[in-house]
Amino acid sequence: MVAEITNTKILVIGDLMLDHYIYGTCNRISPEAPVPVVEISRESFTLGGAGNVVKNLVALNCLPTIIGIVGDDDKADIVLNELSAFGISLNGIVKDSDRCTIVKSRVLVANHQLIRLDREVTIPVAPEKGQQILSKLQQIVKEYDIVLISDYNKGLLTPTLLEGVIDICRQQGVMTLVDPKGLEFSKYKGVNIIKPNRKEAVIASGINITDNDTLLAACAKIQEITACESVVVTLSEDGIAIFNNNKLEIISTRALDVVDVTGAGDTVLAALGVALASGESIYEACKFANQAAAIVVSKVGSATATLNEIHQKIADERFDR
After folding, report:
1. What are phi and psi of 257, to 5 degrees?
2. Could you write out the three-class secondary structure of 197-240?
3. pLDDT above 80 for 254
4. Farthest-apart Cα atoms in the chain, separation
5. Which of 15, 19, 96, 266 is catalytic?
6. Which residues, in sequence order, are CB contacts of 141 under 8 Å at separation 6+?
7. Measured between alpha carbons, how far is 309 from 272 in angstroms, rounded to an integer?
């Protein structure tokens, strides 16, 4: 298990976005339409998508680098300010005036979400912008132990760009770990490790996962499609499955109180990356990520888990035995 994180070099590539929270009270229905009237008390912005992976890495005492794209608008300034506040370099950020910065706005009353409003452009990035991304990667990739690919299917990680990213990393001997999205996993061909959730694994493999045998078959199919070395499937309350060397292992969940699963996939991606970059085996990395996920799902919103929290949780479990 990861005891201390020192000098881990982690690069994140993926869909940057902003999570916008609008908090208020609701005491009446609008006279204009049968909808609640929310009186806003405060608002906040925080990094979402691949930015949430960055937040989780920072919480684990790692200072990563990120490559991503934002619009040329005022919300991009918020993204850049948030990254700068964490001490993250902005050299990997590409601005695109043909896109808006992705913003997910959530209206909450008494911690209950009433509605979510998404502002986004999800068409594939222009080839010249994709080439800028690959050029940035080519210049710095050899400095890193692992590249985390955070795909939210928002237009950045096109099949062409993914092929370029994976090829560049392979040429430099840098491990790649992808959190996938979408129906077609063949675009991730050549990645070292792929980390779908159960639903994504079912869709990608075409196999309905109902037991360990069908889970094994789904993992084998995903490995066949992607030519990856390992498949890691997050199973929510059932823990994490690892398919490696044609063998399936399942690590039971460590969550005691599930409050909110928002962002748990980002936490698992970050924790896996940190553990693997620290030299842990895929099995030990999944154990570490499982502990981190158990912590964040006990919190409200896109939370993070610190290294101290994970170590404390492990110590408490040993004491309880």
Report:
1. -125, 110
2. EHHHHHHHHCCCCCCHHHHHHHHHHHHHHHCCCEEEEECHHHCE
3. no
4. 63
5. 266
6. 11, 147, 168, 169, 172, 174
7. 16
Structure tokens at 72: 């040329």
Domains and CATH numbers, the chain: 10-16+48-101+132-320 (3.40.1190.20)
Listing DSSP states for 250-315 in one string gives EEPP--S-----TTHHHHHHHHHHHHHHTT--HHHHHHHHHHHHHHHTTSSSS----HHHHHHHHH
Active site residue 74: no
56: its two tokens: 């989780």
Here the tokens at position 28 are: 């009446």
Q: How many CB atoms lie within 10 A of CB 275?
A: 25
Three-state DSSP at 320 gives: helix
Say which residue the tokens 């199919």 belong to.
221
Residue scoring higher pLDDT (190 or 265): 190
DSSP 25-61: EEEEE-SSSSSEEEEEEEEEEEEEEHHHHHHHHHHTT
Report pLDDT digits (tens) over 70-109: 999 999 999 999 999 999 999 999 999 999 999 999 999 9
Residues with Cβ within 8 Å of 127's Cβ and at least 6 positions away in sequence, in order, are 160
Alpha-carbon separation of residue 312 from 9, 90, 292, 319 (angstroms):
25, 34, 11, 10
CA 50 centroid distance within chain? 6
Could you give the percent of the chain with pLDDT greater than 70?
Answer: 92
